[in-house]
């Protein structure tokens, strides 16, 4: 996959199950409202970030390349 340049979380879709936080713990953290947030982009490597996005049950994590093209989902 092309290098990830932007991570977006659709908080209206996020159900707060915390899977992304388990898979890529340095990048994603649930906030006090039970929604996932990006706490530190690129703290995990691209593979872990992709795996976190793929593991999200509602596909709320969107990944983009440097040209703004959506890489996932
Ligand atoms: S895996 Fe998806 S639904 Fe679960 S907390 Fe992360 S963004 Fe939200």
From TrEMBL:
Lineage, top-rank taxon, reads: Bacteria
Q: Which InterPro entries match?
A: Fe-S_cluster_ET
Q: Which organism is it from?
A: candidate division WWE3 bacterium CG08_land_8_20_14_0_20_40_13
The answer, when asked if Transport is one of the entry's keywords, is yes
Q: Which UniProt keywords apply?
A: Electron transport, Iron, Iron-sulfur, Metal-binding, Transport
Does the UniProt entry include the keyword Chaperone? no
UniProt name for this protein: Ferredoxin
Alphabetically, the GO molecular function entries are:
iron-sulfur cluster binding; metal ion binding
């Amino acid at each position: 996959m092309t290098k990830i340049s932007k991570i977006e979380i659709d908080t209206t879709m996020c159900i707060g199950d915390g899977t992304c936080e388990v898979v890529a713990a340095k990048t994603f953290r649930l906030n006090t409202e039970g929604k996932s947030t990006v706490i530190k982009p690129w703290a995990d490597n691209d593979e872990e970030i992709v795996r976190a996005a793929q593991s999200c049950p509602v596909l709320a994590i969107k990944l983009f390349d440097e040209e703004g093209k959506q890489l996932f989902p």
